[in-house]
Input
Amino acid sequence: MAFTGNFMCTSFKQELLQAKHDFTASTGDTFKLALYNNSASFTAATTDYTATNEVSASGSYTAGGGTLTNVTPTTSGTTAFTDFADLTFTTATITARGAMIYNTTAGSSTGTTDSVVILDFGSDKTSTAGDFTIVFPTADASNAIIRIA
Amino acid sequence: MSSVGFMDLPRDTPVVGVRTTNNRGFNAEELAEMCADKLMFVADTAPQEIRDQARAYKKQLQEVVKGYLQQAVRSDRTSVYNALNDAGHPQLAELIRRL
Output
């Protein structure tokens, strides 16, 4: 099994329409990003965070991954989008092929592991006793990580 | 495919970047580049004159950010130096100062 591309989880799309995710900065839900090796197998049908094939704790990376900083959703033209601040794990020895963003805030009929997107890095990325940074795309109508056109 | 209500990710092209270091942290130059990329996106499809001007401005912006980041590192080392010195570790403090 292996990473096979990026996916916006279908369950997330449904949950959005049920108002179960809040990306507002500071007051919104808490989203986390977990890193995985290439034995992980995710698709659009993935619904929840799993510890299976997650990279080992190292440096500031701990099981479950790191907490993301939300950027309040905004609009440009007819597109709405949201963003996260870049996330860095420090003094970490990590080899990861991809990541999952998931919502850890329990709401009405939601748990603490609801998946949002699956991110395929395209190849293994490695840090050795160093920094491992996830750089989110430009927050605009054409590139932002989560967009509704 | 219509873009009306469309919401998905490109399947095969990485949508996030990953930057890593080995046996050190990011330096001011690398961070300044990341910062400039976050502050300004210059589309390859922009008219040549605008693209050139935007890239020149971005390069200038990156240099300014780099300068301030380098100063931040130096200032923080001054604070760490004094904290270690005050705690009775002058040799360790000197090691930090010389980094």
In short: Residues 28-38+47-97 of chain B form one domain.
